[in-house]
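Researcher: I'm preparing a figure for a lab meeting and need a structural model of a single chain. I don't have an experimental structure, so a prediction will have to do for now. The sequence is pasted below. Please return the structure as tokens so I can convert it later.
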Amino acid sequence: MGFKGPGEVDAYRRKWVEQVVSTMLAENRPRYSDIERLYDGATRDAAEQAVAAGVFPSEPTDRWKTPPFDDYLHKAVEPINNLYWAFDREGARHNGELWRHHPSLLQDVKGGRIPEFSRYEIEGIAGEYVKSGLKTATVDRLMVDLLVALEFAQYAQTTVNAPHVPFLAQNVLKRGVIFEWFFGRIIAAVIAYVILAAFWGLSRVGLFPDSWVSGVGLIVTCLWLLDAAWGTIMLPKVWMATRKAQQTIGALLNHMSLTYAALASDGPISAQHVTGLVNRATEAGVVWPGPLHVLLEDITARGGRF
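Model: Understood. Here is the structure written out token by token.
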């Protein structure tokens, strides 16, 4: 039985997607999940490539061999399957969620609404996809979006969401240099008072000469004044260093935000435009996942849109 009409080809493709998704998700299948959406887009692109190559759906002639048209469909969804299992590492709940563009990624990171990334595993899957023989615009967009989000989210997590404990574990974005200087002087004064009170208490029980208590007080006061003077002298330098670090982090987050925002379009995206944003961010200091540059070059060579 041959399939020649576009309608018949698409009906076969949709049936194939329905069967595979139903088997994968079983009773946990939601309506039009990420998996189904991505399968639909990737297989549509693959079906067009198959038809252009003269390969049409056909009944299997060998139970152990996948029909050529089905092979196109399998290859199209293979990177999606790999990513699906990479995200659901425990394998306990398969509800079809994978990845979709996050319009407010930075806010989602702050709110803990981003799944954990296995950078090594995702980069490996993206690298294998770049080397594969069949590529689709749907998977192109998925991979580029995910690779950009991967670096953006992880950098934001280690900067914006980093814990802040004054003097111990400081988050440079939340650091208040003036407050720290003022609070430091109070802490130093409290320590000086405790030391002086300890010596005074020892003198009351005869363990320390009374005549020396005033000398201890003078020494402690001088040390406090020296510490305060040194802290005041260093204050402008510390403030400028903190400000520079905050500006650097802000600039990198802004570069990554602009790059990720360029992927929000529902229509075709220019690989050349995204490459320009990626390169400018790289020049500013952003370290993108390695496969991102290669994938964008590959998309550009295939027509430049995804």
